[in-house]
Amino acid sequence: xxxxxxxxxxxxxxxxxxxxxxxxxxxxxxxxxxxxxxxxxxxxxxxxxxxxxxxxxxxxxxxxxxxxxxxxxxxxxxxxxxxxxxxxxxxxxxxxxxxxxxxxxxxxxxxxxxxxxxxxxxxxxxxxxxxxxxxxxxxxxxxxxxxxxxxxxxxxxxxxxxxxxxxxxxxxxxxxxxxxxxxxxxxxxxxxxxxxxxxxxxxxxxxxxxxxxxxxxxxxxxxxxxxxxxxxxxxxxxxxxxxxxxxxxxxxxxxxxxxxxxxxxxxxxxxxxxxxxxxxxxxxxxxxxxxxxxxxxxxxxxxxxxxxxxxxxxxxxxxxxxxxxxxxxxxxxxxxxxxxxxxxxxxxxxxxxxxxxxxxxxxxxxxxxxxxxxxxxxxxxxxxx
Amino acid sequence: xxxxxxxxxxxxxxxxxxxxxxxxxxxxxxxxxxxxxxxxxxxxxxxxxxxxxxxxxxxxxxxxxxxxxxxxxxxxxxxxxxxxxxxxxxxxxxxxxxxxxxxxxxxxxxxxxxxxxxxxxxxxxxxxxxxxxxxxxxxxxxxxxxxxxxxxxxxxxxxxxxxxxxxxxxxxxxxxxxxxxxxxxxxxxxxxxxxxxxxxxxxxxxxxxxxxxxxxxxxxxxxxxxxxxxxxxxxxxxxxxxxxxxxxxxxxxxxxxxxxxxxxxxxxxxxxxxxxxxxxxxxxxxxxxxxxxxxxxxxxxxxxxxxxxxxxxxxxxxxxxxxxxxxxxxxxxxxxxxxxxxxxxxxxxxxxxxxxxxxxxxxxxxxxxxxxxxxxxxxx
Lengths: 385, 380
Fold this sequence. Notes:
Chain A is an alpha/beta fold.
């Protein structure tokens, strides 16, 4: 009896030793190679050329800041390129902290979805990873320019995108939203685009504007100013500035309105078998700068300024819509989607010919800018003799 | 010694059981943006069949389904029913273990063999099943509040990502896909509470069986509803449908400032608690059935072998995760019909007739029929 008990105890011990062996997939933190950003290019043959920006943690041990290291790898597919890097350097790349993926133009033109698939399917990358398109020849050359303040380009880029809530000149697009736009009904996808510009100290990378997609293929780019207008239509504006110009006898005068809050409503209208779109934009702003010294005392003067700013906004939005309708024919504004969501029956009929309908879709824009206050100054600064 | 669980404990166990693996797997995704309608319809459907389950237990108060089957159908046919019911519990338990193993493997530990998860999970489950259902009740009375707190925290944190536009348009593809979806939600997880027929006999005398069933349906249903709608609101239709584990992935997108992010482990913990509960209940039911089949008095003793078999079976059920998800989506709704609807209804009808006859014949009331009247007055 006693020996049986001992035997059983031994068996239990052996059993529990198995449970104490910790993780099978255990990876030491100091041996992880953390990828901060990926640039995806096409190699001269049909292979993918991946460039990784990797955070070098070895520097972190000796009080030095984390260094950015660039690595490159090729492969037929995304995953094979990632694994091929093992034959060159020795890191197992870790994608859990990747925040940025930049597609080159050729990749985006061929179809972005074939590379986005990996980012969503694999367990490591997160599905809110920000996607970009490079306006330059390749995507990898963007990594060559060091940001002015932070060490890692990808981290800097993520910070820039976070700051867009005060600027609205780029629309951050996480991977899952890109998928929603590509496969959703009546909407085309957009991605922010990057380019290299001259800066005070050498060159640097800037978020230039927006890349327009049709299905998952790149059609073209629009500028940063147009992106600002686009973010109004897409209701992505949380802040930013509107510059209103006012004509007067002494030439054009500019005032800056800082946006406090903005709300956009896209309303499809169906009458006489014809769809038209009504955009209502409601902006709350305050006057932050009065460059030309426009007199603002009196209700009617302010109303005039307000009207002026609203009018300019309407014109900009209409121009952009026209440009996209004629130039790209891609419904990046999601007008079709608003029809699908609000008038499902109409959408069922018109779905197949939406491409044509969109091209000559009639859009009316109503902007309402509410000027909440005029800053600290009561009156414009007078220029004496 | 008779195991007794209180009404409250029974409600907690059953609610957790209902949430079970549905906390991470998506049932009824064919309804797309109308999944919320599908959930409501499924709950209404479930409330009908639950009345049958409740009635069976309250006709033969204090008896489990195996004893009831033998009482109403006699020894031979009763044992056939028993076998089928036991197999259902056994398979369901194995299925949940497999879900759990696949989830951990796909999400975080890709090179670890599947059996490691199944074995390490089943050790705890066997322990819990051996210690009887009371222990599970006490375990959950500590963890259930934490569990609900986690789900509500995650929901609140993701509220900034909600896009209510994702719910539109309503019924775009008509009513058919919604009904199909609500049926598959009905079979997985709501009507799976049929397994509780083997446990309801342990409810203490003051507890109302119907109250347990309906409260749990309401709690479990609301939690699942919230989880499903949250994933939909965060991810939107095409992205949500793509996901294998939508609630897990939608939690991954939560980012509050720069410091509060990567909290998807909370959903994994939620799933672990509910998966554990569900498997324990299934193992308990299967063990009780087997013990009854072979007239073993102390069913706790055979929990270990049955549990190990369950873990092994879970590994051999399907070749891979894809086959598993196809099976659960396409075949399971039909596989569930006899176990969740036909057999319980047959048992109910037979029990109704039998109890009337014995009630008339026996002038002196036996314990069973005495209880019947008691429960009838309870339920009315």
